[in-house]
Design goal:
368 residues, alpha/beta, TIM Barrel, three-stranded mixed sheet, 12 helices, globular, methyltransferase, UROD/MetE-like_sf
Length: 368
């Protein structure tokens, strides 16, 4: 892996990171939960399935390789629960999506947040060991997800400021440790921005004592300060999501109300944005992109169902986006991962790989 190759990321054909869990892996996780196999036996199966996944990604033409989040139940809780002072626990009810509810899991802060070590460092090391010369992309949730999703036990923090200081320091420690093991492409996933896409979400912010501008400043600060000490040759992108569970979503709305912040105040190298249906609004908010070194990854291919988009219509939408952002700063991907939780979206593995192939082929045609 060369630094120059990483500097070409996000790649013209990229992806958000999670893939459908193979049936063998699902069965193994169930057996482990039922105490029918050991943790070591589960890890062996995870290792084998991740190795197969890496080969499939390479064969599909992807240049950034992930572990598909195969070791995780959730895209965010598993990571956050590995920080010092944070615990994964069973809740009274799950998260509400449109027409469906997740399993009743959550995270709670039971002590001062910190980073002393983290089990996902080993996940990265294994992925890198089987990825060959491909660029390894590691995905983690945004620090904002802890603030918006965690239950904070009383008496631990006297203010949001105190909590954010510890949270940012913990993220800085993890990112440096990941870099020291060889990570040069990090993706941060964040659904908190979507709270500001709708009146319903803005009302929920007010219930937390935040107005829209306060919330945007807080979220931007958490991202910027968490990545502020990253070495110059580590590329960091962010995926802004509207929710993804069993092909459903949490919220809708345009990027307009957050556009000046995400396009003008975030110090990331690229943004993965959802533009796969009418819920996403138009490309007009892209007019606020004011940096020639900020890459915009257009999520025009949906991961929520298996039907392939008309390639010519996708190309036409890319051309439409060039009214606001030069073609060299644009890339293409699915709008989200295929399996943000271990349940996965409602499509087959074959359809999933057809989607990835579609992204690669369209990108090859557009950026010849």
């Amino acid at each position: 892996m060369t630094n120059q190759l990483v500097l070409n990321a996000p790649f013209k054909a990229d992806h958000v990171g999670s893939f459908l869990r193979p049936e063998r892996l699902k069965q193994a996780r169930l057996q482990y939960e039922n105490e029918e196999i050991s943790a070591q036996q589960l890890k062996q199966i995870e290792d084998e399935e991740i190795t197969k996944l890496v080969e499939k990604q390479i064969n599909a033409g992807l240049k950034s390789i992930t572990d598909g989040e195969f070791r995780r139940k959730w895209w965010h809780f598993d990571f956050l629960g590995g920080l010092d002072g944070v615990e994964f626990y069973e809740t009274d009810k799950g998260l509400s999506f449109k027409g469906v509810q997740t399993r009743a899991h959550g995270i709670k802060v039971t002590g001062k947040i910190g980073f002393s070590s983290h089990y996902m460092i080993e996940h990265f090391k294994f992925l890198q060991s089987v990825a060959g010369d491909s660029v390894v992309k590691f995905t983690i949730p945004s620090p904002n997800m802890l603030y918006y999703r965690a239950t904070i036990e009383e008496g631990i923090y006297s203010s949001d400021e105190e909590l954010f200081q510890d949270l940012i320091t913990a993220y800085q420690g993890f990112i440096q440790a990941l870099y020291d093991e060889g990570c040069r492409y990090l993706q941060i996933d964040d659904t908190s921005w979507a709270t500001s896409f709708s009146e319903e979400g803005i009302t929920s912010l007010k219930e937390r004592g935040l107005d829209l501008e306060d919330a945007l400043q807080l979220s931007a600060r958490a991202i910027n300060e968490s990545i502020a000490k990253r070495p110059n040759d580590m590329l960091v992108t962010m995926h802004i999501c509207r929710g993804n569970f069993r092909s459903t979503y949490i919220t809708s709305g345009s990027y307009e109300l957050v556009s000046e912040t995400i396009f003008g105040r975030l110090n990331v190298d690229g943004l993965f944005l959802e533009f796969d249906d009418e819920r996403s609004g138009s490309f007009e908010p892209l007019r606020h992109v004011n940096r020639p070194d900020l890459y915009i990854v257009l999520g025009l291919i949906t991961s929520k169902h298996g039907a392939l988009e008309d390639a010519e219509l996708v190309k036409a939408r890319i051309a439409e986006a060039t009214k606001y952002v030069p073609i060299d700063q644009l890339c293409l991907s699915p709008q989200c991962g295929f399996s943000s939780t271990e349940e996965g979206n409602i499509l087959t593995e074959e359809e999933q790989w057809d989607k990835i192939g579609h992204v690669v082929q369209i990108a090859d045609d557009v950026w010849k």
